Amino acid sequence: MKQLLIFAMTLLLGNVVAYAQLDLPPVAGNPRAMVSEEVGITSITITYARPDVNKREGKIWGTLIPLGFTNFSFLTNAPTAPWRAGANDNTTITFEHDVKVEGKDIKAGKYGFHVAYNPDSSILIFNKVNNAWGSFYYEQKDDVLRVKVKPQPLDKSVEYLKYEFTNHSANACTIALMWDNLSLPFRVSVNTEDIVIATIRDQLKGNIGFNPQIVLQAAQYCFTVNKNLEEAYGWSKRAITGFGGQKTFPTMSNWVNAAVRTNRLKEADSLMTEVVALGNAQQLATFGRSLITLKQADRALKLMLDNQKKHGDNFVVNSGLMRAYSAKGDFAKAIEYADKAIAQAPNDQQKKATEDLKTQLKGNKDIN
Fold first, then answer.
1. Of 23, 105, 115, 245, which is the most buried if we count CB atoms within 10 A?
2. What's the mean per-residue pLDDT of the chain?
3. What is the mean pLDDT of residues 136-164?
4. pLDDT at residue 202 is higher than 80
5. pTM of the entire structure?
6. Which of 199, 208, 159, 163 is nearest to 183 (CA)?
């Protein structure tokens, strides 16, 4: 029994030694860092250690960081090892979804990130091994992607290596490795709209798909980006006829919007009476403007006239009619309603804005 106990304790201690880690400061005082941002809904995260210049200005690139590949490889003893793009553990970069780097596809995942520096054209390497110490055991066969970029001079020296996200757009950003007097920038682009729609589709299969406001929001996103219109039409109806759905101005006007965008024009016309009944003056005027945007000037004018019948002679109604007649090319009629709106403007700012629109109408220019 005693021997069995000793064996068990030995096994336990062996496991503790194998898996326990002390929380110690980083090697050589290189601060550990992580930077993460989103492009659309795609998270991009870089984890790295930050070496400093330490009075080596101008001696980093091409000296401390050699040109191209080095013979630091423990596997080949040949010039096959790139730089780890940081200090200590290899730098890693994680893409939440599939992206393009410098126009080339790379799948979602976590990658070891390395650099083969050259002042004219440096190679950026994304490698499937993401848990290595440095690049001593780097192997090209594990590369997922290589791209070439041109290093850029910096106006001000960067003491501690860093990664920065710049030049943001809805579908792209630039990530730059910056150290000493150089930057290595690379462009990451994301198909945000398709990713969002795919995510929405999955989410609507879960419990939030029983919330009609969420379903409505899903359809409206598709209309905003003008993609996935048929499925969005189905979501528009589901927000009304599905679980918990109800007829409100937002849901009914969105259904009309869906019908127009999918060329179900008779259906759109049949729903208009209910839309008018549910909307206030501002809602109807705003919806009328959205129909103008969809090149539905006749339907927009009819809606604005119905708004007039329901809500009378006021600034919002007359401003809507001004825009509807402008969309029809009837500038004389549009000016008539512009004059009414100017007289009814609730403040000087809206009065001035309407006067400016009238000036455009007098030059026979559509104000929409």
1. 115
2. 92
3. 96
4. yes
5. 0.83
6. 163
Residues shown for the chain: 368
**Residue 193: left if φ>0, alpha if ψ -120 to 50, beta else—which one?**
alpha
Q: Which tokens in the block code for residue 103?
A: 């126009």
**SS3 for 119?**
coil
Q: In what order do the strands lie in the sheet with 32-39?
A: 32-39, 42-49, 91-95, 109-116, 122-127, 143-149
Alpha-carbon span 28 to 25, nearest angstrom: 9
Long-range contacts (CB closer than 8 Å, 24 or more residues apart) made by 100-107? 100/188, 100/189, 100/190, 101/126, 101/145, 101/147, 101/186, 101/187, 101/188, 102/147, 102/148, 102/149, 102/186, 102/187, 103/187, 103/189, 104/145, 104/147, 105/145, 106/144, 106/145, 107/144
Average pLDDT for residues 135-153, to the nearest whole number? 96
Could you tell me the residue ranges of all domains in the chain? Answer: 21-190, 191-278
The DSSP code for 89 is B
Cα angle: 264, vertex 270, 241; to 5 degrees: 80
The pLDDT score that the predictor gives to residue 74 is 83
Q: Residue 117 carries which side chain, given as an amino acid letter?
A: Y
pLDDT of residue 75: 85
CB 42 within 8 A of CB 195: yes
* pLDDT tens digits for range 53-110: 999 999 999 999 999 998 888 888 888 899 999 999 999 999 999 999 999 999 999 9
Query: Residue 59 is encoded by which pair of tokens?
Result: 């001696």
Residue 361 and residue 339 in contact, taking contact as beta carbons nearer than 8 Å? no
Residues facing residue 175 across a β-bridge: 165, 186
